[in-house]
Structures are given as structure tokens and as C-alpha cells.
User: Fold this.
Amino acid sequence: MDHRSISINSTRNDDALTDCADDAASPSAGRPVANPASTAIGARQKATGTRRRRILDAALRCFLEQGIADTTIEQIRHASGASHGSIYHHFGSKEAIALALYVEGMTDYQQRVIARLHEHQTARDGIRAMVLEHLAIVAEDPNLSMYLTRIGTADVSDEAAQQIALANQGLYREVYAWLLPFIDSGEMVRVAPALYVSMIVGSAAHFARHWLANRLTHELPEVAEQLADAAWKSLAPSV
Assistant:
């Protein structure tokens, strides 16, 4: 069994959040700035990627402080140091920025969770790894985690709702495919395929939402193993 522990390197949302009008030249912590490439084309591509990342980072700060509806493109422009032309070139609208933050954040989350899952050979270890990775991601980037939580449960346009659903379906399929041999062998209970992710990380996600909002005194490492054990018991056959 993997005995990985959770290391909390970030503070909760209220402490970690900086003013959305802060110096735009400083990229958010943990996000690497592209190095100059050896060719002019490579340099331009990296610079474009860096500008896009700064716009997203600035928008995240503004959205968390003020909400998407009350944030303006001008505020994002000021916070990121980007021009209006650059913002519209990369995204087209404020709503497109908000959606890109969600889809890209969920894609990164899913890739990490799936990678951790595939490191294990038993159903119980795989489920435990998913829960621990979920909590580790929340601890590492509480601001983005708070945003993903809010957008995932918010009223959005039909088009955005479809893209959010597509972003989540990949995780459901991957997790179900990994679990299927254990389900077929009777090591796990059989439920609707779309329910497995919720049953595995649902309790951890619920706890994390309250932790991010400073409503709970327990810290993530204190509850990680209990939440992982609860996830396993929810899917283990009754004896």
C-alpha cells in the first residue's frame, strides 16, 4: 500500500488570495514563466503562452474577489498587464476566460488523479490514492480549487454547461475502466458507472469545500485516511 502523506504548502483561500490589481509582472506562485527559446519563433510562442497564463492568473484573482459578473475586462487587463487586444485574441470574452480557467483546471486535476490511480494494483489502494490526490491538489492550490468548486455548481449558459460536462466525462470513463475488473470480480459493488467518482471523492470534496471556506478546524492530513477509508467502505461488498 502507498503510504503517501499530504503536504500542505499553501494557505487557505482567504489568506492566499492577493488583490486582483496587484503587480501584473509577477506570475502566480507555482506557475513557471517560459524561458526564452533559442529561435525567434520559439520565443514568440513561449511569450504568447506566458501572456495567456498571466491573463488567466489575473482573472482567477479577480473572479474570486469580486465574482465573475462584477469583474470587468478592464480589471483583468490591469491586473495582468495585457492589452485589450491580447485578451480578446486569446479568449474573446470574459465568459471565455472563466470557462478556460475551469476546463484547464479540471483537465490538470483529472490527469493527476488518473495518473495516481494507475500507479496501483488493488482497488482499495487505487481508491485511497484518488482521495489523497484530491486533497493534495486542494492543499497545493486552494484558490483554483475554490474557483473550480464554485463554477462546477454555478448556473451557466447551455454552451458552458456542455463544456463543463465534457470536461468531467473523461474522468468518469477513465475511473470506471480502471475499476471494472474489480467490479466484475465482485471485489467492489456494482453501481451506475457515473456514480463511482462521486462515491470515491464526494466526501473529500464536501470536506474540502468547507475547509476552503474556513468553516472547519480540522486540517486535511488529519482527515485524509478517514475519508479514504470511508470511500472504500462505500464500495466494498457487504460481509
Remarks:
- The radius of gyration is 20 Å.
- Residues 1-5, 23-34, 40-44 have pLDDT under 50 and may be disordered.
- Residues 203 and 227 are 7 Å apart (CA to CA).
